[in-house]
Design brief:
- The protein contains 3 helices and 6 strands; from the N terminus they run H-H-H-E-E-E-E-E-E.
- It is of the alpha+beta class.
- The chain folds into 2 domains: 85 residues, GrpE nucleotide exchange factor, coiled-coil domain (Hemagglutinin Ectodomain, Chain B, Alpha-Beta Complex); 55 residues, Nucleotide Exchange Factor Grpe, Chain A, domain 2.
- The strands form 2 sheets. Strands 1-4-5 form a 3-stranded antiparallel beta sheet.
- The chain starts with a helix and ends with a strand.
Length: 191
């Protein structure tokens, strides 16, 4: 059986080779008939070469334009990021000034209540600045424990059935920046 299939393959291969030889011979005859003796074939070849050169030149120009565009956009993105950071830092500077004034006042005064009030005002101003820039505090106390926002650092027994799975204490506040968590809240969860 194997001998039969090998023989069939050999016959098929010989037939394919024979057809290929006939095709080559026919194309040579046709090419000889179509090719004028006056050398007109070289002008057709020249036309093809010109067309190729034109297309190649166009391709290279397009490629260079794309490369310039890519470099320009990378540079513009870097400049945008730098200027965005610059704007945020400019807006923090008044808060630094407030802290410096608060420190000076704390050193000169003996009225602790006014120092506390000044620190509270600076804190409120800073929290407002964060909110204006899209930073929000993650709600924690008495909320359902959610691994998307909370990181449990310890579990305590729940005193009631309703407290199970709820956040009982927040050890460190968590924050989001435009709906993306930038720091998870570290919490104690009732179990």
């Amino acid at each position: 059986m194997a001998e039969k299939s090998n023989k069939e393959q050999q016959d098929s291969k010989e037939q394919t080779e024979s057809q290929a030889e006939q095709t080559v011979a026919a194309s040579e005859e046709t090419g000889a008939q179509e090719m004028p003796e006056s050398g007109a074939g070289t002008t057709e070849k020249d036309e093809w070469k010109e067309k190729y050169d034109e297309l190649n030149d166009s391709y290279l120009r397009t490629l260079a334009e794309y490369e310039n565009y890519r470099k320009r956009t990378i540079r513009e993105k870097a400049e945008l990021l730098e200027s965005a950071g610059e704007n945020i830092l400019k807006n923090i500077l008044p808060l630094v000034d407030d802290f410096e004034r608060g420190i000076e006042a704390a050193e000169k005064t003996e009225d602790i209540a006014s120092v506390k009030e000044g620190v509270k005002l600076i804190y409120d101003k800073f929290v407002k600045f964060l909110e204006q820039n899209g930073v929000k505090e993650i709600e924690t106390l008495n909320q359902d424990f959610n691994t998307d926002y909370h990181e449990a650092i310890t579990m305590i027994p729940a005193s009631t059935e309703e407290q199970k799975g709820k956040v009982m204490d927040c050890v460190q506040k968590g924050y989001t920046l435009k709906e993306k968590v930038i720091r998870y809240a570290k919490v104690v969860v009732a179990q």
